[in-house]
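Homework help thread (please don't just give me the answer)

Our assignment gives two proteins as sequence + structure token strings and asks us to describe the second one. The first is just a warm-up. Here they are:
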Amino acid sequence: MIDTHAHLYDEQFSADIAEIISRARANGVEKVYLPNCDSTTIPAMMALTEQYPGYCIPMIGIHPCYVKESYEAELKIMQEWLDKASFAAIGEIGLDYYWDQTFVAAQKDAFHRQIDWALERALPIVIHSRNATQDCIDIVREKQNGQLKGIFHCFGDDLNAAEQIIDLGFKLGIGGVVTFKNSTLPEVLRAVDLEHLVLETDAPYLAPVPYRGKRNESSYIPLIAQKIADIKEVPLSVVAERTTKTAEALFS
């Protein structure tokens, strides 16, 4: 299985990252993709990818919550890194209207420009959309020229949103939220083909049941996969195989 989204460079993992990686490997997680947040997270992310080459794989981009007054300078730093290192995707990028709407115009500008980088370099994008999914969908639709691909990370919206995302050729990133008792995701996933899903943890956030509220980690991917298997009424091995194939094709 593949964890398509985990912040393993986060300081919450600094004391025991070797054990985190070891547990993930022992639980069948063969690769972890690392989304970036801003210029301050790049050094730790790149250090981790050097420590675990081919296992921890970096992306580059500005998370919408980090788009502030200095976002132009941040974008310049991202572009410099794109020119000097190899990245699997542009991410995580997108829109977040949950915490603060002061910089919505700047978030949209940054989102548009980073999508353009992805198109120029034939890279997928990994989208963060909190309280902003329809706006993210509309921007992707505007930019979709048949070449744009990626993941709507931490998908938790309704079937209408899921169908729009799938119609655009994008995948749904399914994480620990699917295991929560009050989640409406199971209902949505029953109506969605398995080929449109990829697995993710968003570690250290959003740990699945029975670890909800605790630090999340990549070794919990099988708990998410098992929940999807239960929803789809297929063996765990089928979910593992299909989601891995989808992730590999996307990031190839």
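The one we have to describe:
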Amino acid sequence: MLSYRHSFHAGNPADVLKHLVLFEILKYLTKKDKALEYIDTHSGAGMYVLSSSEAQKTQEFEQGIAKLWSYSGDNQAIKDYLDLIQGFNKNDVSFYPGSPAVAHHVLRVQDKSWLFELHPQDHGHLLNNFKPTRKRKIRKEDGFQGLLALLPPISRRACILIDPPYEIKSDYELVVKTVAHAYKKFATGTYMIWYPVVDRERIDKMEMSLIDAGIKNIHLYELGTSKDTQEHGMTASGMIVINPPWNLTKTMDSVMPELVEHLSQEDGFYRSVELASE
């Protein structure tokens, strides 16, 4: 099934959380001179125009990056994230960078990236936005299979973003299966798993399945824009991070209350949980 298009959702609260976490992790990992490999299993188009018909149809960015645009607080991680987004814009928020753009803002000449995208139209946009080079590979392939084929990386250092659309229920199980297999091949990589909360039981099951797979050092950061409900629709989203930088939880514990304040309704919430220790 290839109906999902992220252009309808670009810049929403889930993107804010996902890309802030990605940005913080990459900033830390690139402090070391040794080469890093970035693997993005579901890259999308890589850059989004918020005046497009898709973005305007849902206007989800109005509840995300647009609300945070005029942030005047003193949280350094949020200010750094906004500086990143503002670098792609002029006076107002017209463009929103996807994960490939966020990553390539940080990656250095010695680093390598692998961008996977199966959707034919989004793959075309990805090629237009990011030309393939010797250090940047763009593949129209299944990102789960592509990830496993790359592990362990030659550099022995990798940052991996797993961000499927979860169009079908089996995606949740496929994520766990893929990550468990990847972890056995390469246990020291930093893995980031984005997830939507549509059915809380699925998230609970995914958390327990990752723990039961024997994976160590798992942290979770979740932003709820409204309380859980049995109604249709996403009420929260989160990032599960395996082998996070040592300072990430401290940073996110300062960020999450501010994101709840700026992006959530009155019944908004956040979770910052260590699911499994080292």
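TA reply:
I won't write it for you, but here's a hint about the kind of observation we're looking for: The longest strand covers residues 190-197.
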